[in-house]
Amino acid sequence: MEVLVPFDAQDPNSRLAPVLTPEERRAFAAEMLGDVLDALAATDADPTVLATGPVECPVPVAVDDRPLTAAVNARLDAAEAPLAVVMADLALATPVALERLFGTVGDVVLAPGRGGGTNALVVRHPEFRVDYHGASVRDHRETAAEVGASTAEVDSFRLATDVDDPADLVEVLLHSEGRAARWLADAGFELVTGDGRVRTEREG
Amino acid sequence: MEVLVPFDAQDPNSRLAPVLTPEERRAFAAEMLGDVLDALAATDADPTVLATGPVECPVPVAVDDRPLTAAVNARLDAAEAPLAVVMADLALATPVALERLFGTVGDVVLAPGRGGGTNALVVRHPEFRVDYHGASVRDHRETAAEVGASTAEVDSFRLATDVDDPADLVEVLLHSEGRAARWLADAGFELVTGDGRVRTEREG
Questions:
Q1: pLDDT of residue B102
Q2: Predicted confidence (pLDDT) per residue in B70-123, tens digit
Q3: Less Cβ crowding at N or C end of chain A, within 10 Å?
Q4: What total of structural domains would you count in chain A?
Q5: What is the pLDDT of residue B197?
């Protein structure tokens, strides 16, 4: 399975700005990308990082500085085989979760993200195109129906958890021992449990 | 599989107070309970609602006004067979997701909730007891290890989504056509997509 991993090389995970400096966000995003590539490496995926600028990583990088939707659709235009798209901030992704995605039957297979996003998908229909704006999982269901593509969804908490909000750091510390989790621990983040929801605090 | 569904009959889903009156919260919570019971009815589960007070519903109700942890552990003390616990605010639960939970091998099978909770679990070990305070999924892993129980986790977005925060209403409208989703639509809630995250608004 060919897999695109879109990656913002300039200003990644901007919603983490309240808790990380721009430089830290770039470093943390690179660790999350590393986690996603580690998980993909344990599957039969053939990944390409689709980046807005140069990135150092162990798989091929295609640079396209257009917005996400246009850059992905250009690859769908050119695709001659099934193509998967897996977001780079899925720090909880595991080989098992990704294999469930790749192995699910359907012309379009969606892994919904929390809040209406589409965190990962597989496209096996020549006319389907993405639109990541708004409630994209709903729009992708409708687009698939319009072009006559069958759809299926993968029910995965790990794939639903894109780490782009300070509250999401809790999930990384609770459910991963990978690169991003180690980076957070090294940066002083730790879990705090009190009377309300679990949260993270940073030493220092 | 015997399944307990704990339900707060007095002040359910208190974090929804910013968007629902106390009376509306009780009505919405009853609809979510209905969704969970509908999903369980399509499995081979044998459900009991473990409520803090009287509830009208189509399955047996056991009333226990103690806090959640004490009430569940009293049932575990008395259990002679595997016992599952499924929270009543899992409005996105489906028979397939619940069957994945019940069918997973392990002395203790955990379905993590977002933010460190334990939204559902199966207990097949005589010494394991729950503690829902704090980051319970982490604590339950540790407790299982302490009593020598094997653990497994179910990776499900549907089971990870307990609807107890205004932001969670988005998930109900996007991923369910059940009782709670219809209640929200009838109450005037609809999805709003803009430049940021998808959210709900209520017609006024």
A1: 98
A2: 999 999 999 999 999 999 999 999 999 999 999 999 999 999 999 999 999 999
A3: C
A4: 1
A5: 79
In this prediction, residue B2 carries a pLDDT of 98
Sign of the CA dihedral with B166 first, then B171, B173, and B174 last: positive
Instruction: Supply the ipTM of this predicted assembly.
Output: 0.96
Task: Give the angle A178-A183-A189 at the CA atoms, nearest 5°.
Answer: 110
Q: Residue B119 sits in a domain of what CATH number? A: 3.90.550.10
Determine the structural domain holding residue B159 and report its residue range: 2-164
In a domain, A201, yes or no: no
Beta bridge partners of B108: B123, B151
Q: Which residues of A touch B181 (CB under 8 A)?
A: none
User: Residue B87 and residue B70: Cα distance in Å, rounded?
Assistant: 15
Any idea what DSSP says for residue B177? -
**H or E, element range at B158:** helix B157-160
Within a domain: B124: yes
User: Best of B99, B155, B189 to disrupt the A interface by mutation (most A CBs within 10 Å)?
Assistant: B155
From chain B residues 145-164, the ones with a CB under 8 A of any chain A CB are 155-161
| Sheet strands side by side (includes B118-123) | B61-63, B46-51, B2-7, B83-86, B118-123, B108-112, B151-153
Test B170 with A112 for CB contact under 8 angstroms.
no
Q: Do A197 and B115 touch (CB under 8 A)?
A: yes
Residue B199 lies in a domain: no
Write the DSSP string, A29-60: HHHHHHHHHHHHHTTT-EEEEEESS----SS-
User: Would A86 be classed as within a structural domain?
Assistant: yes
Give the single-character DSSP code of A18: T
Quote the CA–CA distance of B91 and B171 in Å, as a whole number. Answer: 9
Residue among A155, A194, A198 whose CB faces B115 most closely: A198
Q: Exposure of A67 by Cβ count < 10 A (0-12 exposed, 13-18 middle, 19+ buried)?
A: exposed
